[in-house]
Amino acid sequence: MTVFLLALAAVIGFAQGQDKSKRPSPPRTAEGSIDGVKVKIDYSAPSAKGRKMLGGIEPFGKVWRTGANEATTFEIDKPIQVEGKTLAAGKYELFSIPGETEWTIIFQKATGQWGAYSYKESNDVLRVNVKPGKTPAFVETFAIGVEKDQVTLQWENTLVAFKVKKG
Q1: Which residues contact 160 (CB under 8 A, 6 or more apart)?
Q2: Is the separation of the CB atoms in 30 and 43 below 8 Å?
Q3: Which of 57, 69, 72, 88 is the most buried (most CB within 10 A)?
Q4: What is the 3-state secondary structure (H, E, C) of the chain?
Q5: Are 101 and 132 in contact (CB under 8 A)?
Q6: Cα(130)–Cα(133) distance, rounded to whole angstroms?
Q7: Edge to edge, what strands does the sheet with 27-34 contain?
Q8: Which pLDDT belongs to residue 18?
Q9: What is this structure's pTM?
Q10: Residues 106, 120: contact at Cβ < 8 Å?
């Protein structure tokens, strides 16, 4: 048993020290300013690779980490309004519940999660619902963008955006 625990600790230590840029879903950062508020989103970008992702590997109606690997983080330096609802300045984890006709965007106070495996609704700070749209072209690798008055999520043929303004 001791040998097993030492081996497990070595594997975990190796994985944590691994160069994240060499992962199949490498880290990405989306940054920008919306209405004078600095927005920074750290996420890992999975690729479809011929697979059906949204509504397939990432099923509709289930909480998703909104990326891959560690949960996506969303950081703002001032309070904002997300789809008309107030979110205090700070760092959050960004989850979503994809749907064919509606997505739920979730901001959580818990940080440091891997995936959505330990997601607890009781840690939600804010939830908003938005309608998905279509991308102009197929998006192979998941991408988050910070634009003039919104944050966008794009993958495959799906575009999801939520409005942001200074709170």
Answers
A1: 96, 98, 103, 105, 130, 132, 133, 152, 153, 154
A2: yes
A3: 72
A4: CHHHHHHHHHHHHHHHHCCHHHCCCCEEEEEEEECCEEEEEEEECCECCCCCCECCCECCCCCECCCCCECEEEEECCCEEECCEEECCEEEEEEEECCCCCEEEEEECCCCCECCCCCCHHHEEEEEEECCEEEEEEEEEEEEEECCCEEEEEEEEEEEEEEEEEC
A5: yes
A6: 10
A7: 27-34, 37-44, 72-76, 90-97, 103-108, 124-130
A8: 60
A9: 0.84
A10: no
Instruction: Give the type of residue at 131.
Output: K
* Residue 22: φ, ψ to 5°: -95, 5
Token pair listed for 31: 């940054």
**CA-to-CA distance for 85 and 158, rounded, in angstroms?**
24
Tokens encoding 117: 């495996």
pLDDT in tens, the chain (167 residues): 444 434 434 444 444 456 766 767 899 999 999 999 999 999 999 999 999 999 998 999 999 999 999 999 999 999 999 999 999 999 999 999 999 999 999 999 977 888 787 889 999 999 999 999 999 999 999 999 999 999 999 999 999 999 999 98
